[in-house]
Amino acid sequence: MEDLYIINRREFLKKISLFAGSSVALASMPWLKIFRDETYAKSANEKVRLGFIGIGDRGSALLQNVLAFAKPMNVEIAAICDNYEPNYQRAIKFTNGKAKAFYNYLDLLKMKDLDGVVIATPLHEHAHITIDALDAGLHVFCEKSMARTIEDSKKMYDEHLRTKRILQIGHQRVFSPVYMDAIAKIRRGDLGRLTHMRAYWHRNGDWRRPLPKGKPELEKKINWRLYNAFSAGLFTELLSHQLQVANWIKESFPTSVVANGSLIYWKDGREVYDHISCLYFYPDNSQFLYDSITTNKHYGCEEQILGTKGSMELELNKVYQEKPPTPPAILQLINDIEKDVFQTIPIGGASWVPETAANIKGDYISDNYKMDETKLQLEAYVRYIREGKAPEELPIQGYYSTVWSLLAEQAANTQNRVTLDEKYRI
Amino acid sequence: MFGNVMRVYHNSFFAMGSRFNAVFPFYNQEICEHIFNSIQSEVLRIESKLSYFYSGSEVYKINKSAYKFSVQLDEELFNILETCIDYSKITSGSFDITLRPIIESIKENGSPSTPAGQSYLNQIELDKTNKSVRFANEKVKIDFGGFGKGYALEKVKLLLENSPIENAFVSFGESSILAKGKHPGGDYWQVGIKNLFDADDSLHVFNISNSSVSTSGNYYVDDTGQLCSKINVINPETGKIAGGLSVMSIKSDSPLEAEILSTAFLVMEDEKINTTMDRFKNIEAVKISYSENKPVKKLFHKV
Predict the structure, then answer these.
(1) CB–CB of A338 and B171 under 8 A?
(2) B199 shares contact with chain A (CB less than 8 Å)
(3) Which chain B residues are Cβ-neighbours of A332 within 8 angstroms?
(4) Which one of A62, B54, B151, B224 is separated from A150 by 20 to 30 angstroms, measured CA to CA?
């Protein structure tokens, strides 16, 4: 039976071909060009050989996504690596023992015939593994956020430029058909002037992964997201996703940020905040308001785009008009009154109804078909490897969403309004 | 007036499956905004109470439960039901809030769910003492589709009467118009009934001041005047769907009365319309039917 992804992919490719002539796709989503490149099919004969480093929860998901299209896309999972035994064994199982297995990523990087790696280790390990992989001549797909520090993020980016290897950061929303359609509609003015953005990610849980029985020494290895040395917690693990969306939609990056963080509920030895809120300022003086909490999930996860003519809720795939269209007769009446003209208003008739009932309670931004954007971004990575290059906008998006997430952490810690040091601009 | 230009306040919102527009030739933005917000709140309150589709509405709950047990109503909804039953009697059954199941049955099975001339209305039991309603069986459903906009405008009329706004023009889906005072350039407001095949042409003009015009038809049009779809309008007496394209417009001091009578008269025999009109004060009625894309206008008078 044909994989659902492959079936949906055809729909996606049709959609992309419709986008082909639009300036919005070229200007706002240049990374999609790879999907409509007709010369691509010819080069697909060459096998792409990938190594996976870090096969925890996210790494496993990425691995399984690639396995799902490995055959039709002519991809081989040549190597896997994890220094935690249960993950290591799980990865061997996923690949039926066919991939070479390593505990140390440096051994994996020594393999001669790899084309690229997929890195999904804890955040603090991203930088040195990425830099070593780039130095080894490999292309890199690295999960977001880029690195634990701004300095390391800059080093990763610089190394990608120096080695001329691909550096793709895992912001899957840039490959989501809903977000693509949203951007197209926003750019053509459906929401009027964009004046404000809000986003949030609310969960109700301790954000912990269970430790193996009798192994308390593994706490920081398993629950690295809760400790400052390894992660900035909600800033780098959740905010960075939605900040990337804000930057993409606003077509710019913040100029400054104020933020606050508090640890008010999960007092279990963790160091990172369990509630954060941030306010970003953009060059057009508009603001992006964000919060993430771990004690209530009623509002879930959302990015709200607010403009003078309408609003969008991207996660829900909904768009709302601010006002119904004004009837021509009412426009005439207003015009008449303003110009002191008294005449009949041809208005009475059968009732007006919107084109669809959904216009009243919000319409869908995009066609209601399923497309797995995580798979799509990995397929894009494979395609970029075959081309030997990827659009520079991808690492730039990844870089600034990481850097500005880390600056929000800085703002929360210092209680200052924080800006980006010139030396970290790219 | 600012220079030679009269400032106009205009605002709108979605409600009852359509749109609501208010135009106030007035210069105090803050007062206009305040009145408009009160109107919007009231209209949306009524919608959330009377909606047939919204699962939180009282009507939805009644339709779901009243055949199983008596459902207690608040004073407003009880009065609404009584009013609807009264108007049904006055219009010899042409206004009927229980027609939806019959129309749905025609749509699904090609035939009505009741014999011709039989309505579900007499299967509604209202208990005046306990202010409750009970349906005789599960087929009975109430739908305030031909009532809601008029009822809402009746409330809007009260809000406008009690406001400092002297002149106002309100359009609810363009099929229900309410006007207070006068057009700044005239002594009243001139409401034209549109020609389906020429949107700029008015086939009939009503001069209204502190009154309303309601139009019921068996089709929908869009803003370019294009015919979007036909609506199934049933004649309760014959149990048959009205054929052709036609609209019935009523001018009345009461927006609710205009709404109810435009719905009822659309399916009523012409002679009966004339006799029924006798029972009402200050109403005017005009019916426009289209035959081979040409409008035929008929004015009705009290006998």
Answers:
(1) no
(2) yes
(3) none
(4) A62
Q: Which of B14, B194, B220 sits opposite A346 (nearest CB)?
A: B194
- CATH code, B121: 1.10.3980.10
Sign of CA dihedral A63, A66, A70, A74: negative
Q: CA-CA distances (angstroms) from residue A355 to A35, A308, A314, A364, B90?
A: 33, 22, 22, 13, 36
Question: What is the per-residue pLDDT for B228?
Answer: 77
To 10 degrees, the CA torsion angle through A144, A156, A78, A385? 90
Substitution target from A344, A351, A353, A359 for chain B, most B beta carbons within 10 A = A351
**CB contact (8 A) between residue B221 and residue A337:** no
With a CB cutoff of 8 Å and minimum separation 6, the contacts of A276 are A233, A234, A235, A239, A259, A260, A261, A262, A290, A291, A292, A293, A408, A412
Say if the Cβ atoms of B220 and A352 lie within 8 Å. yes
CA B2 → CA A339, A342, B7, B26, distances in Å?
11, 18, 7, 11
DSSP 3-state assignment of B245?
strand
Q: Is position B90 within any domain? A: yes
pLDDT-based confidence at B200, cuts 50/70/90?
Answer: confident
Contact A351 B189 (CB under 8 A): no
**Tens-place pLDDT, residues B45-97:** 999 999 998 888 999 999 999 999 999 999 999 999 999 999 999 999 899 99
Condensed to tens digits (0 to 9), the pLDDT of residues A280-339 reads 999 999 999 999 999 999 999 999 999 999 999 999 999 998 888 899 999 999 999 999
**Which of B6, B16, B153, B174 is most worth mutating to test chain A (most A CB atoms within 10 A of its CB)?**
B174
Preferred mutation among A334, A337, A356, A359 to probe B, highest tally of B CBs within 10 A = A337
Residues of B in contact with A354 (CB under 8 A): 14, 17-19
Q: Which of A242, A244, A252 is nearest to A313 (CA)?
A: A242
Q: Say what angle helices A373-387 and A57-73 make with each other, to 10 degrees.
A: 60
CA distance B298 to B293: 16
Q: Is residue B274 domain-resident?
A: no
Average pLDDT over residues B200-209: 93
pLDDT on residue B111: 66
B48 touches A at CB < 8 Å: no
Domains identified in chain A and CATH numbers? 4-174+374-391 (3.40.50.720), 179-322+359-369+402-424 (3.30.360.10)
Residue B202: strand pairing partners: B194
**How many folded domains does chain B comprise?**
1
Any chain A CB within 8 A of the CB of B198?
Answer: no
- Chain A CB contacts of B193 under 8 Å are 346, 348-349
The pLDDT of residue B2 is 44
The whole-number average pLDDT for the span A146-164 is 98
Cα radius of gyration (chain A) = 24
The closest CB to that of B5, out of A326, A327, A338, belongs to A338
Tell me the residues of chain B between 86 and 145 that have a Cβ less than 8 Å away from chain A.
none
Give me the pLDDT at residue B227, please: 78
Instruction: Look up the ipTM and state it.
Output: 0.90
Full residue range of the structural domain in which residue B68 is found:
58-135
A342 closest CB neighbour out of B185, B194, B206: B185
| pLDDT for res B120 | 84
Q: What are the backbone dihedrals phi and psi of residue B220, each rounded to the nearest 5 degrees, phi first?
A: -115, 145
Residue B213 lies in a domain: no
Closest residue to B6, CB basis, from A328, A337, A343: A337
List the single residue in B21, B201, B249 with the smallest CB-CB distance to A348.
Answer: B249
DSSP state of B231: -
